[in-house]
Design the sequence.
């Protein structure tokens, strides 16, 4: 005799639920195999559904709170189930076909070992699409749908034995129903899978019945909530299934596992899962009573081998992933076949020819260049909050640029300063490489990618920064095209967003003056993302986070002392090199950062020709005119975006000339406008390439225009590319120290030795500074010191000691030096050798020679050196409060950078996702495979 069937229907009390509940009740009444009893559990006020449930013929109606989960509602109804009756579990929105129950009951009758018969769930709005048909799980307990979202073509109708299923519509055999009650601690997730695992461990089976169809709505996914529930259910099941001796070990592993999963999810480009992971771990650890209730020991009859045979394997997961992959729409990159590699190689040859002398130099110096710290640990110590390498007892946050120089120096750990020489030699090919990849965002044509790469490497601001060395400006120019490459795709990929966030942080660190313009670009991108692609908002927002994390200590320090404009100061060594005067601001629109455009004035004068340079800016006109055409083409969106970037760059460069917030000894130093010009040149060149790609003229004309524009820019670059050979470059050979070799040797023994450097000034004054260690370094510079509006106490004390030394007063200057850890005094030989400076140098040397406690070491290439022949006091350690501040800042910055790095790491999945989207951004066409 067939077993009785008792249906349990869980209904929600809401206007939406009322609409579908009537349809579900009608479907239950229309079954060809009628139910023997029906119990309805109403979650929420019963009034809205009272009429429906009263007419349903239910043997009982239970009213529960609106927050009652499905499992708890079923548990309430189990008390009314007829003993021995099979239980059919339904939700108010699960509408079965008329033959569904007959098929499910027939399956139970034919298979005595079957504990659960599961139907095929189909989409209520499209019954030809499968919502769920069986579930499995991985080795670590993650639930896996066997069929989800696919068209129903009968391809899965041969499936029979599965590990579990969606709980909606399942029929549970009466003799085991008491042991297979859904677990309310699962929060409505994986309840059917959990029942299936318990059934298999009890020696039973879960059978699919594809001919039994139940229509259900496709749930509206709320990612954060659903991720939390799924992960909580997974961790809860892990504790419920584990052997007794392993429960505590699993419980203790949840927080370390959350940390590991955080890294894994960031690498997998799923940062939204991270909060859910931590919340799930905490909740799962706190619900000990729920775990005790869910333990499987009392029902287990079989081994885990019965479950392992039905787990999802890696191979099956890969096959499922492959079946869901979208078609590839991206062409091959064609870096080698498209001429990109040849362009880089050609740029390398040009670089070697232009900077041939560098091959014999031990290092580079001049301009804003300084050596790097001699050790990797020293490099990264300069990048942290703490004692600065210049000044007396100066404790302050490091400029973000120090982290960039630390990273650069770490590339050549044996001799970090050599990395600067390598940077200069490789600058041109690296510029070509970055611009070629940036060009892939604006065109698919290989020739135009090479044109953009050449135009970028020949940028006047870049060549000026190489000839009159400005390391921060060189790095900015090399990083900007990569920022365009990654930033243009940041809205559609977490990998691109992570990469763009790191590049943006590096660009702002090297050129803080670009921050306002880049923030405007970021804000415009955020607005467009909100309007066109809301799913990418979080990615675009993230791109700003590492920059803020690295800059906030310096920002707070500058704001605290009331010098917000000082935030725009160029990092590194302040240098008042060649630059346009503030009253020549209008000339910045011509594209050159110096009054001698491209160095042509000096070049012509060296040839004995009139130094007329009015015609030089005309050489840039073809590129500029082509850029203006870009907004008029069919790719006007991208064209307008590039023009906006160009305008912002020009505005930044013009404004920079009016900002003088730093000092180099006694000279004010304006913000370098070349960084703004590099940004403007990026927009102009990209817009010009768009015009050359999809302009109105015939293809042959556009090709000729691109070649003419490139030739004109190459002509403008000739003086800069030959400046080193002609001796008209500030770039010169250097070593890894700015101090005499004797000081460097002593500093290797005692790291905390300081040197008082006295530099005669052209007006007869003297500039005094204290340098700690073997050398003044690039990463040891601080904009907080170079932009301070007034003398600090330490500066006053240095000035007093220097005055006593130079003037030959009776004050105990030697004792004052020793008290502050100063071991050497250097009267520098560098500087403008005016009559006043020569007089000061001679008088100062005589006065210091007569000072007791100072022993003359001798003349050196760096100047005259004296040693302090008095016991030195050690350099004071930083206070506990400063140490705690340093640890807090380092932790925040490391977390931000680590998250960005994990997001930026490419994976096979991210590569597959990228290939499903065109490489060109904002194009009116798509690439085809």
Sequence:
């Amino acid at each position: 005799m067939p077993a009785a069937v008792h249906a349990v229907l869980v209904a929600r009390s809401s206007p939406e639920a009322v609409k579908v509940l009537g349809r579900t009740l009608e479907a239950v009444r229309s079954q060809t195999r009628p139910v023997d009893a029906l119990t309805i559990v109403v979650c929420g006020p019963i009034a809205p559904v009272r009429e429906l449930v009263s007419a349903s013929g239910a043997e009982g109606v239970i009213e529960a709170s609106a927050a009652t989960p499905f499992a708890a509602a079923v548990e309430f109804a189990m008390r009314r189930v007829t003993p021995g009756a099979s239980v059919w579990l339904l939700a108010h929105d699960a509408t079965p076909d008329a033959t569904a129950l007959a098929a499910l009951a027939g399956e139970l009758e034919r298979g005595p070992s079957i504990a659960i018969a599961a139907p095929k769930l189909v989409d209520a709005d499209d019954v030809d699409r499968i919502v769920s048909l069986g579930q499995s799980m991985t080795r670590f307990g993650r639930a896996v749908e066997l069929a989800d979202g696919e068209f129903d073509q009968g391809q899965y109708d041969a499936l029979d034995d599965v590990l579990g299923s969606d709980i909606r519509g399942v029929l549970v055999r009466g003799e085991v129903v008491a042991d297979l009650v859904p677990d309310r601690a699962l929060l409505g997730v994986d309840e059917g899978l959990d029942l299936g695992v318990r059934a298999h461990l009890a020696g039973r089976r879960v059978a699919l019945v594809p001919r039994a169809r139940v229509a259900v709505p496709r749930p509206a996914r709320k990612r954060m909530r659903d991720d939390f529930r799924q992960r909580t259910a997974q961790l809860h099941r892990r504790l419920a299934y584990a052997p007794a001796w392993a429960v505590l070990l699993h419980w203790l592993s949840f927080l370390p596992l959350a940390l590991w999963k955080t890294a894994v999810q960031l690498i997998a480009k799923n940062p939204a899962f991270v909060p859910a992971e931590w919340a799930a771990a905490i909740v799962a650890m706190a619900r000990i009573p729920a775990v005790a209730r869910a333990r499987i020991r009392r029902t287990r009859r079989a081994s885990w081998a019965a479950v392992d045979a039905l787990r999802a394997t890696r191979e099956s997961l890969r096959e499922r992933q492959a079946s869901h992959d979208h078609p590839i729409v991206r062409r091959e990159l064609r870096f080698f076949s498209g001429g990109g590699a040849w362009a880089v190689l050609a740029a390398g040859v040009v670089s070697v020819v232009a900077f041939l002398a560098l091959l014999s130099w031990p290092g580079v110096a001049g301009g804003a260049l300084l050596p790097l710290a001699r050790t990797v640990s020293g490099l990264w110590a300069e990048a942290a909050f703490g004692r600065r390498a210049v000044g007396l007892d100066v404790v302050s946050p490091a400029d973000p640029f120090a982290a960039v120089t630390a990273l650069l120096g770490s590339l050549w750990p044996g001799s970090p300063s050599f990395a600067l020489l390598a940077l200069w030699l490789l600058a041109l090919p690296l510029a070509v490489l970055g611009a070629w990849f940036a060009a892939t965002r604006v065109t698919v044509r290989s020739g135009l990618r090479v044109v953009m790469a050449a135009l970028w490497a020949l940028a006047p601001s870049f060549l000026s920064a190489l000839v009159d060395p400005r390391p921060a400006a060189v790095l900015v120019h090399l990083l900007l095209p990569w920022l365009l490459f990654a930033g243009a795709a940041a809205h559609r990929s977490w990998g691109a967003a992570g990469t763009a966030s790191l590049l943006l942080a590096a660009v702002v660190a090297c050129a803080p003056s670009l921050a306002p313009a880049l923030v405007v670009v970021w804000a415009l991108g955020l607005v467009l993302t909100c309007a066109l692609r809301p799913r990418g908002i979080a990615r675009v927002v993230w791109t700003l986070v590492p920059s803020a994390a690295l800059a906030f200590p310096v920002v707070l320090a500058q704001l605290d002392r009331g010098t917000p404009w000082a935030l725009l100061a160029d990092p590194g060594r302040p240098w008042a090199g060649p630059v346009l005067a503030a009253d020549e601001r209008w000339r910045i629109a011509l594209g050159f950062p110096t009054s001698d455009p491209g160095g042509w004035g000096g070049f012509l004068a060296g040839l004995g020709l009139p130094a007329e340079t009015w015609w030089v800016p005309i050489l840039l006109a073809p590129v500029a005119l082509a850029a203006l055409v870009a907004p008029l083409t069919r790719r006007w969106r991208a064209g307008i975006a590039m023009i906006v970037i160009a305008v912002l760059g020009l505005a930044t460069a013009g404004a920079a000339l009016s900002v003088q917030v730093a000092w180099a000894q006694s000279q004010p130093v304006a913000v370098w406008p070349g960084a703004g010009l590099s940004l403007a040149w990026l927009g102009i060149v990209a817009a010009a390439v768009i015009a050359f790609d999809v302009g109105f003229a015939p293809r042959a004309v556009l090709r000729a225009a691109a070649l003419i524009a490139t030739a004109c820019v190459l002509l403008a670059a000739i003086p800069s590319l030959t400046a080193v050979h002609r001796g008209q470059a500030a770039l010169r050979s250097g070593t890894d120290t700015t101090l005499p070799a004797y000081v460097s040797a002593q500093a290797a023994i005692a790291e905390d030795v300081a040197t008082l450097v006295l530099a005669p000034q052209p007006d007869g004054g003297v500039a005094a500074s204290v340098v700690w260690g073997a050398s003044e370094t690039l990463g040891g510079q601080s904009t907080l010191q170079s932009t301070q509006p007034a003398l600090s106490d330490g500066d006053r004390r240095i000035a007093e000691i220097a005055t006593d030394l130079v003037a030959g007063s009776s004050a105990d200057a030697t004792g004052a030096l020793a008290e502050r850890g100063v071991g050497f005094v250097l009267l520098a030989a560098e500087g403008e050798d005016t009559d006043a400076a020569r007089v000061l140098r001679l008088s100062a040397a005589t006065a210091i020679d007569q000072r007791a406690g100072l022993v003359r070491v001798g003349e050196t290439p760096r100047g005259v050196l004296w040693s302090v022949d008095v016991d030195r006091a050690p350099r004071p350690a930083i206070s506990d409060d400063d140490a705690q501040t340093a640890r807090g800042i380092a932790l925040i910055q490391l977390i931000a950078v680590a998250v960005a790095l994990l997001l930026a790491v490419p994976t096979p999945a991210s590569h597959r996702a990228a290939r499903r989207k065109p490489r060109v951004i904002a194009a009116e066409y798509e690439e085809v495979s």
Summary: Residues 880-904 form the longest helix (25 residues).
